[in-house]
Design goal:
Number of strands: 12
Distance between the termini: 56 Å
Oligomer: single chain
Structural class: alpha/beta
Strand content: 15-25%
Amino acid sequence: MTQTRAARRITVLATLLVALLAGFLTPGRAAAASLQEVTGFGSNPGALRMFRYVPDGLPAGRPVVVAMHGCTQNASGYGTGSGWTQLADRWGFSVVLPQQQSANNGSSCFNWFQSGDMARGQGEAASVAQMVDRQLADVGGDGSRVYVTGLSAGGAMTAVMMAAYPEKFKAGGIVAGLPYGCAQAAGSPYVCMYVGAAQTPDQWGDRVRAARPGYTGPWPTLVAFQGTADYTVKPVNMTDLVKQWADVHGTDQSADVSDTVAGYPHQVFRDSGGNTAVETYSITGMGHGQPVDPGSGAEQCGSAGAYILDVDLCAAYRMGRAWGLGG
């Protein structure tokens, strides 16, 4: 028995030595954090999977970002590709990464257009809300600094969470997404995506207000990104997002700031108190995808891939700065 224990100890020490020599570990420093799946996070009526990224040594009281992938993507690839896990290490916050299952949607799209998945207390929306509660409890996160974001169907689901659970989120970031209730307003998710829906700002705002009856605020603020050459989710949808959330915040439809960031048109819509309610980035010439800017520079993040496009601007970084997550 003693010889067996000694042999095991030698094997472990040898493995560690090999890892050190190969550069996989650094003496005195913990190994890098990895994505973890969380099960049993609630009743999970939407039958989603929950993954999370928590930087090693993250103290309590830090923000939480919920980041939802687009169609054909998964939690791991989107978390890394978008740059959110990279920024979590840099700035010190945790990331919740919901993942769709093919049994729910053959293309792994979140079902933002289904009435049973976009209503408070039901389906996928309720599952994501349960993930937030579990994450806050497990990591001691700051419940007043929870943010939600996503690409495409994940962006549309971001609007769902902002509307159905506004008390849980300080802000949302929608990339190539759609307004809340757009499929119902247009009569079809495809009409919404390709044409848009004919709604006044007040009608758009009413759809959000109806999602959480009696709620008087505060409402999440919005940062939106849209490619001008996106033929999957047409740019009219960002225009409609502005109409919807400016109305919810009680501000007008005229931008208070119109300038450029990294060469791209950028607008800011402020409420009566001078606070940013809606902010938009129009990415000239970009198709359907998440803007990233791979590299090690202070404003760079993400890695290019399918529907994750290198356009010299990282959307996750811009969102994080707007939300006060990092310097």
